[in-house]
Design brief:
The complex is a heterodimer of chains A (about 250) and B (about 575).
Chain A: E1 7-16, E2 19-29, E3 34-38, H1 45-52, E4 60-65, E5 68-69, H2 75-82, E6 85-88, H3 100-105, H4 114-122, H5 127-136, H6 152-166, E7 170-174, H7 182-199, E8 202-207, H8 210-216, E9 219-224, E10 227-233, H9 239-246
Parallel strand pairs in A: 3-8, 3-9, 6-7, 7-8
Antiparallel strand pairs in A: 1-2, 1-4, 4-5, 9-10
Helix pairs in contact in A: 5-6, 6-7
Chain B: H1 7-12, H2 24-42, H3 55-65, H4 73-107, H5 110-116, H6 127-142, H7 145-156, H8 160-185, H9 189-196, H10 201-240, H11 243-252, H12 256-283, H13 317-337, H14 347-360, H15 367-402, H16 420-442, H17 445-452, H18 460-484, H19 489-496, H20 501-537, H21 543-552, H22 556-584
The chains are: A alpha/beta (about 250), B mainly alpha (about 575).
Chain lengths: ~250, ~575
C-alpha cells in the first residue's frame, strides 16, 4: 500500500446560497480504511460525499482524489478518476423499468465503447460479470427481473452490484440504509462491511444511525453545521462525543 | 342567521375593498373582445354579397351524391391505391420525423446541455447555448407543413420525397421539443449517478434517462402518426398524390360521386388511425389526447399519469404487436412509395435550389405591395380570430353533451331526472354531438373550404368557417375530455344543497372547466393562424390566396416576401397567446 491518501480535503468550504454546507474541513482517508460520516441532517455529510466523487467543486480549499486535485482536471481525466470511485445513494438511483442486468451493467459504461452500450440494451452482454456481482450481493436469481419489481433492500443490493462491477478503488455510500427497514438495514450494512473487508476497497459511508457506524466501520468523523467535530477510531468514540453532535442549542 | 362567537369582531371590522376591476385579465379580455369585433367587421357583411345563390344547386347535387358514391371496381381500386399512398407518406414522414426529432431532442434538452457544459464550475454556463438551440428549433416548427411542401415541390418536383420531407421537417422539430421535455422530466437521479461514476453524457442518457422516457416517446410517436395522416392528405392537395390529390381532382371535374367515395375512405382511415393510436396510448397509461397540440404541446395542462409509474404494463401483447406492426408498416411503405433519396443530392436539385435562391433575391417591396400585404395580413388575422372564436363557442355548446359524465342518466347534470324521454335525450345528445365532432375533424380544413366555396364568394368568411368547423371538431373533443376529467365534488355538494341546475352549472362546473377551455382555445389559435395558409391555397382568402397566385405565376421573390409577413404574423399570435395564457393563469 502506498502513502498517498485516497481522499484528501484541505481546508474545504462549500456554500449553497447563504448557507455554509461545509466550513474549513480538512481530512485524509487512506486506502483500505472504513470511515463513517455521522451527524444530524444538514451537517454536510451529503455535500462531503458529492465533493469526494467530483459532482461538486469546493468554493475554497482543495479536494484531492488519489493525489489529483479534482478542480484542475479536464473532463476526460475527471471521468477517469470518477470511474475509480463508486457511489451508492439513499434512493438507489436505479432505472425502474430496466431489467436488473442493465442497471448493473450501467456501472461499466465508462469503460464500454458506445456500440457495446447500445447493443447490450437490446441483447444483454457481460452477463457472467453481472451474475457474479449479483452473487456477491446475494441476489443472483434476479438477473433478468425488472428492477421496479424488487423490494427496497433488493434494489439497494442491485445498486451495490453496480458499484462492484465498476470495480472502483473506493466506495462512497450516501445514507445507504435510511430508506430501508431495520432488518434490511443490518443486512445491507453487513454486506458493505464484508465486501470492503474481502476486497480491501476503501469505504466512506454517511450514516444517520450512530450504532451502525460504531459496529460496521473503523473510524468515525462527526460533522455538525459543516464543521468536523471529532475524527476518531470507532473504539475511542464515547457517548459524550455522540451527544455533542446531536445536542440542541438554545 | 346564526349569531355566535364570531359576530362581534365581524361587526366592527370594515369590509375589505373590492379587488380592482382593471387588471391584466380584464385588459386582455377587453382586447380580445375588440379584436373579435374588428374581425367580424372584416367579413364585410352589408358591403358586398357574400353568398353565391348560384351555388345552391351544386350544394344539393353534392349532398345527394353522398348516398351514391362511385363504387365502380375501377374507382374503388383507385381509391384504395390513393389511400395507400397517403398512408405511405404519413408513415415515412413520421418515421423520419422521429429520427430527426430524437437527434434534435438531444440538442434542445436542458439535461444534455448541463452535462456537456462544464457546469460544475459555472452552473449557469449552459443556458445560453441551450436557449439558442431552442430558438433555432422554433423556426422549422413555426412554418406549416404545406409551406414546407411547396418549397420541396419547387426544388424536388412532384416527388414522394417532397411530401415525406414536408412532414418530417416541421414534425421533427415538434418531436424534438416533446422528446426533450420527456428527457428533462424523467427523474434524474440515475442519470446523475452514472455521470458521477464517469460515464459520458450520451451513455448515461442511454441507461439512465431513455428507458424512463421511452414509454412517453412511443406514445407520442403514435399520436404523431395521427397528425401525419391528416398532413399527408393536405399535402396531397398541393400535388403530392394520394387521397388529397384525388379529392381535389374529383372536385375540379365536379365529380361529386367520386368525391364521396374518397371521403368515406378518408373517414375510415382517420377513424382507424385515431382508434389504434388512442387504444395504444390508453394501454400505455399516457393519454396525451390527439390533436392537443399540433405545434405547441400543452405545458403543465396535462393531468396525465406521468412519472412515478414508470413504464408500460409488462408484456402487453397489444403494445408489442403495435410496435411490430409499426415497424412492418414502415418497411412496406418504403417499398411501396420507393422515394428516390438520391434526388436530395442530385445536381438537378442543387441547380433548382440555386435557381430558387436566385429568383428570390433581391427581395423588394413597393408601397402598393406593402398596402396589399398589410390588408391581407389583417384578413388572415381576422380569419384566424373568427375561426378560433367559432370553434370555442361551438365547443362550449357541444362539449358538455359530448362528455360521458354529464347529461347521461344518473350523471352530473341529470342526477335524479326522471322519465324515459329524458334518459334517452342524454344518450341521443351524446351520440349525436360525438359523431358531429368526429365528422368535423375527419375532413381537413381545405376540403371544408372547397365545399364552402360552392356557396360563398372567396374571402374571409369561407376561410374562417372552414377552419372553424374543422377546429371545432378538435376543440370540442378536447373540451369534452376535460369535462370528463373534472373534479366532480364541488358540483355534488352544490346539488346536495338543493341548488338549481343552471346555478349549479355556473358555480360548480364552469369555474372548474373554464381555465382549461381558454387555454385550449388559445393554443388552437396558434394552430389556426398557421392553417390559414391551407384554406387560402384552395382559394378562400387572406395571405394564403396571394401565395397561391404568386406560386402559379412563379413569382418566387413575391412568395418569399409573403412568407415573411406570414411568419411574422404567426409569431405575433404565438406571443399574444402566450401572454394571455400567462395573464389568465
Amino acid at each position: 500500500m502506498t502513502d498517498t491518501p485516497i481522499f484528501e480535503l484541505n481546508n474545504v468550504s462549500k456554500q449553497f446560497g447563504n448557507t455554509a454546507a461545509l466550513q474549513g474541513v480538512s481530512l485524509r482517508v487512506m486506502p483500505g480504511e472504513r470511515v463513517a460520516l455521522v451527524g444530524p441532517s444538514g451537517a454536510g455529510k451529503s455535500t462531503l460525499i458529492n465533493l469526494l466523487n467530483g459532482s461538486l467543486l469546493p468554493d475554497q480549499g482543495e479536494v484531492r482524489v488519489m493525489g489529483q486535485d479534482l478542480a484542475r482536471l479536464g473532463t476526460r481525466k475527471l471521468r477517469a478518476i470518477q470511474r475509480r470511485v463508486g457511489t451508492v445513494h439513499q434512493q438507489f438511483d436505479l432505472v425502474g423499468n430496466l431489467r436488473v442486468i442493465h442497471n448493473v451493467n450501467a456501472g461499466r459504461l465508462g469503460d464500454w465503447p458506445l456500440w457495446k452500450a447500445v447493443a447490450s440494451l437490446i441483447y444483454p452482454l457481460n452477463t457472467q460479470a453481472a451474475f457474479d456481482a449479483l452473487t456477491q450481493v446475494g441476489i443472483p436469481e434476479k438477473l433478468y427481473e425488472r428492477t421496479d419489481q424488487l423490494s427496497g433492500g433488493q434494489q439497494q443490493r442491485v445498486a451495490l452490484a453496480r458499484v462492484l462491477i465498476q470495480n472502483p478503488a473506493a466506495i462512497l455510500a450516501d445514507e445507504p440504509i435510511s430508506s430501508l427497514d431495520p432488518g434490511r438495514s443490518r443486512e445491507i450494512m453487513d454486506l458493505f462491511g464484508a465486501l470492503s473487508q474481502q476486497t480491501g476497497k476503501t469505504l466512506v459511508v454517511s450514516l444517520h444511525a450512530f450504532e451502525y457506524a460504531l459496529s460496521h466501520t473503523d473510524r468515525l468523523i462527526g460533522l455538525r453545521r459543516g464543521r468536523v467535530v471529532f475524527d476518531a477510531p470507532a473504539a475511542e468514540v464515547t457517548p459524550a462525543m455522540a451527544q455533542s453532535l446531536y445536542r440542541i442549542e438554545v | 342567521m346564526a349569531r355566535g362567537l364570531l359576530t362581534p369582531a365581524a361587526a366592527t371590522a370594515t369590509v375589505p375593498a373590492r379587488p380592482r376591476q382593471l387588471n391584466s385579465r380584464t385588459a386582455w379580455t377587453t382586447a380580445l373582445l375588440l379584436l373579435l369585433i374588428w374581425s367580424l367587421a372584416q367579413l364585410g357583411i352589408g358591403d358586398r354579397r357574400l353568398v353565391n345563390p348560384g351555388g345552391i344547386t351544386q350544394v344539393t347535387q353534392f349532398v345527394a351524391a353522398a348516398f351514391q358514391p362511385d363504387l365502380s371496381a375501377q374507382f374503388l381500386r383507385l381509391t384504395f391505391e390513393a389511400t395507400l399512398v397517403t398512408v405511405g407518406y404519413a408513415v415515412l414522414g413520421t418515421f423520419l420525423s422521429l429520427i430527426l426529432g430524437f437527434a434534435g431532442s438531444l440538442l434542445v434538452s436542458e439535461t444534455m446541455w448541463k452535462a456537456w457544459m462544464p457546469t460544475r464550475r459555472r452552473p449557469t454556463l449552459y443556458r445560453a447555448p441551450w436557449a439558442v438551440s431552442r430558438g433555432l428549433l422554433a423556426i422549422p416548427r413555426g412554418i406549416h407543413e404545406v409551406i414546407w411542401g411547396l418549397f420541396f415541390v419547387i426544388i424536388l418536383g412532384l416527388d414522394p420525397l417532397a411530401a415525406i420531407l414536408a412532414i418530417a421537417i416541421p414534425f421533427g422539430a415538434i418531436v424534438a421539443k416533446v422528446f426533450a421535455e420527456a428527457i428533462d422530466d424523467a427523474p434524474h437521479e440515475p442519470f446523475d449517478a452514472l455521470i458521477t461514476s464517469g460515464a459520458s453524457p450520451f451513455k448515461a442518457l442511454l441507461y439512465g434517462l431513455l428507458p424512463q422516457a421511452l414509454p412517453d416517446m412511443i406514445s407520442y410517436a403514435f399520436y404523431r402518426l395521427e397528425c401525419s395522416i391528416r398532413a399527408s392528405v393536405v399535402l396531397g392537395m398541393i400535388g403530392a398524390g394520394g387521397l388529397g390529390y384525388e379529392i381535389l381532382l374529383s372536385f375540379q371535374t365536379l365529380n361529386y360521386n367520386e368525391m364521396w367515395t374518397l371521403f368515406y375512405a378518408l373517414f375510415a382511415l382517420c377513424a382507424l388511425t385515431d382508434l389504434w393510436s388512442s387504444v395504444l396510448r390508453q394501454r400505455m397509461g399516457r393519454m396525451v389526447t390527439c390533436t392537443t397540440s399540433d405545434a405547441t404541446p400543452i405545458e403543465g395542462l396535462a393531468e396525465l399519469p406521468r412519472r412515478g409509474q414508470a413504464g408500460a404494463p409488462q408484456g402487453d401483447r397489444f403494445i408489442s404487436g403495435s410496435l411490430i406492426a409499426a415497424g412492418a408498416l414502415t418497411v412496406l411503405s418504403f417499398w411501396y412509395i420507393d422515394p428516390t433519396i438520391s434526388k436530395l443530392w442530385a445536381p438537378k436539385t442543387l441547380t433548382l435550389l440555386a435557381g430558387l435562391i436566385d429568383d428570390v433575391f433581391p427581395l423588394s417591396l413597393t408601397l402598393p405591395q406593402l398596402t396589399v400585404l398589410l390588408k391581407l395580413s389583417g384578413q388572415t388575422l381576422a380569419m384566424s380570430v373568427l375561426a378560433t372564436g367559432f370553434a370555442a363557442v361551438g365547443g362550449l355548446f357541444l362539449a358538455f353533451p359530448a362528455a360521458r359524465n354529464f347529461a347521461l342518466p344518473g350523471k352530473l347534470m341529470a342526477a335524479g331526472s326522471k322519465g324515459r324521454a329524458r334518459r334517452w335525450l342524454g344518450w341521443i345528445m351524446l351520440v349525436f354531438t360525438r359523431g358531429l365532432l368526429l365528422v368535423q375533424r375527419a375532413i381537413p380544413s381545405p376540403v371544408w373550404a372547397l365545399m364552402l366555396l360552392f356557396v360563398f364568394f372567396p374571402g374571409v368568411l369561407p376561410g374562417a368557417l372552414a377552419l372553424g368547423i374543422y377546429n371545432l371538431g378538435v376543440l370540442g373533443r378536447l373540451m369534452a375530455e376535460s369535462v370528463e376529467n373534472m373534479d366532480e365534488r364541488p358540483l355534488r355538494s352544490l346539488q346536495a344543497l338543493g341548488t338549481g341546475r343552471v346555478r349549479a352549472f355556473l358555480y360548480g362546473v364552469l369555474p372548474l372547466t373554464a381555465p382549461r377551455f381558454t387555454a385550449y382555445t388559445l393554443y388552437r389559435w396558434e394552430i389556426v393562424i398557421r392553417e390559414t395558409v391551407v384554406v387560402g391555397l384552395v382559394g378562400a382568402g387572406g395571405l394564403g390566396r396571394l401565395l397561391a397566385e404568386q406560386l402559379s405565376s412563379f413569382d418566387y421573390s413575391g412568395v418569399a416576401v409573403t412568407l415573411l409577413f406570414y411568419i411574422a404574423l404567426t409569431f405575433m399570435v404565438d406571443l399574444a397567446s402566450a401572454s394571455i395564457r400567462k395573464a389568465y393563469r
